[in-house]
């Protein structure tokens, strides 16, 4: 069973209708400036989330945007290494534990134009599991930072901390490798994120028992978000319609890393199509990053591939992904 922290949904007056867009995690307020936080996650470690985070951030900065890279891998921070900078004097742990008062005090330069960094926690043994109020404080303050884009490099797995960072983002980017095990882990991540989102609504909508059943591993448990919505709709059409809207709004963006063959290039569209058909999940395929020796050489040199090998195939793939994200922004603001 996937263990998720019980969400405490904010109270809402009985005569006030529910919000049109997805609810924010408990204790947070949706920002009026839309689509500026990008969270890069995935079902397991070693799939290239940090490489994708760092280089997408650099690509966005090259379009004139101010970018803040945030190492939100609270248990294994290494984004600074990928950028080739020494561990900054202050990190997220200093802010969470009130050694510094302002989130701005832990922002460090990277030496890359328009790119700054908040390093992940490195010196606190329990940093991977901050207390509930600490997490809310961190999420709230990250939303106040002056930057055009915040790029969150998330830890691996489906812990509630990882899922809450993923859900607060305007763009949840899921990274996977073109391998069956990676695809399976990625689906588990998306399923966990969707049901974590429903936990913000479960008491309000009276679906507590169904959410628990969906998260159960026992025989006969609900397996997919699509099946979950259908079950609710059969019992309560009005609530089911609300959940249908939640499902339609839950859009994840997909990146395939280390594509070696033409078949690997086709994994992304295939996953998008099959997940829509069988699981009812909307996805947008941002692109594939070709397997490229220049990428791992750059990692070994502690240099972003966009800077170390800007003409490589990996760099080209990362740049195209950033351009697709910018295109999404353009569509969002077009009247």
List the helices and strands and how they pair.
Blueprint (H helix, E strand, L loop, with lengths): L36 E5 L7 H13 L5 E6 L6 H5 L8 H5 L10 E3 L5 E4 L13 H11 L6 E6 L5 H9 L2 E6 L3 H20 L2 H4 L2 H7 L10 H11 L1 H13 L1 E9 L2 H4 L1 H13 L2 E9 L2 H8 L4 H4 L4 H21 L2
Parallel strand pairs: 1-5, 1-6, 2-4, 2-5, 6-7, 7-8
Antiparallel strand pairs: 3-4
Describe the structure.
The protein is an alpha/beta fold. The protein folds into 2 domains: 37-176 and 292-333, P-loop containing nucleotide triphosphate hydrolases (Rossmann fold); 179-251 and 274-281, no CATH class. Helix content is 44%, strand content 14%. It has 15 helices and 8 strands. The protein has helices at 49-61, 79-83, 92-96, 132-142, 160-168, 180-199, 202-205, 208-214, 225-235, 237-249, 262-265, 267-279, 293-300, 305-308, 313-333; strands spanning 37-41, 67-72, 107-109, 115-118, 149-154, 171-176, 251-259, 282-290. The protein has an 8-stranded mixed beta sheet, sandwiched between helices. Strand 3 (107-109) and strand 4 (115-118) form a beta hairpin. Helix 1 (49-61) crosses helix 15 (313-333), helix 5 packs across helix 6 and helix 9 (225-235) packs antiparallel against helix 10 (237-249). The protein is globular. The termini are far apart. The relative contact order is 0.15.
According to CATH, the fold-level topology of the largest domain is Rossmann fold
Uncertain stretches of 5 or more adjacent residues? 1-22, 30-35
Within the largest sheet, what's the order of strands? 3-4-2-5-1-6-7-8
Helix content: 40-55%
Total helices: the number is 15
Largest sheet properties: 8 strands, mixed
Outline type: globular
Under the CATH scheme, which class of the largest domain? Alpha Beta
């Amino acid at each position: 069973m996937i263990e998720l922290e019980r969400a405490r949904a904010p109270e809402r007056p009985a005569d006030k209708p529910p919000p049109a867009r997805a609810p924010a995690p408990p204790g947070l307020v949706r920002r009026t400036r839309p689509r500026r936080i990008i969270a890069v996650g995935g079902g397991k470690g070693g799939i290239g989330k940090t490489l994708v985070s760092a280089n997408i951030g650099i690509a966005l900065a090259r379009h004139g945007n101010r970018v803040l890279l945030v190492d939100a891998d609270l248990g294994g921070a290494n984004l600074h290494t990928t950028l080739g900078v020494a561990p900054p004097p202050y990190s997220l742990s200093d802010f969470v534990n009130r050694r510094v008062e302002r989130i701005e005090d832990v922002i460090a330069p990277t030496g890359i134009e328009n790119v700054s960094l908040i390093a992940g926690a490195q010196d606190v043994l329990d940093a991977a599991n901050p207390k509930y109020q600490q997490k809310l404080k961190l999420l709230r303050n990250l939303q106040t930072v002056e930057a055009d884009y915040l790029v969150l490099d998330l830890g691996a797995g489906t812990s509630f901390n990882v899922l809450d960072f993923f859900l607060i983002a305007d763009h949840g980017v899921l990274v996977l490798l073109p391998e069956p095990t990676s695809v399976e882990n990625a689906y588990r991540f998306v399923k966990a994120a969707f049901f974590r989102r429903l936990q913000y609504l479960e008491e309000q909508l009276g679906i507590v028992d169904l959410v628990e059943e969906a998260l159960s591993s026992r025989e006969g448990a609900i397996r997919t978000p699509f099946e979950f919505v259908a079950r609710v709709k059969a019992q309560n059409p009005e609530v089911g319609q609300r959940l249908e809207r939640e499902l339609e709004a839950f859009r994840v963006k997909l990146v395939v890393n280390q594509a070696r063959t033409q078949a690997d290039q086709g994994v992304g569209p295939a996953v998008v199509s099959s997940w829509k058909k069988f699981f009812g999940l909307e996805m947008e395929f941002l692109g594939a990053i070709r397997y490229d020796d220049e990428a791992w050489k750059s990692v070994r040199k502690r240099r972003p591939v966009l800077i170390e090998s800007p003409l490589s195939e990996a760099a080209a793939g990362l740049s195209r992904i950033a351009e697709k994200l910018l295109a999404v922004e353009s569509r969002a603001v077009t009247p």
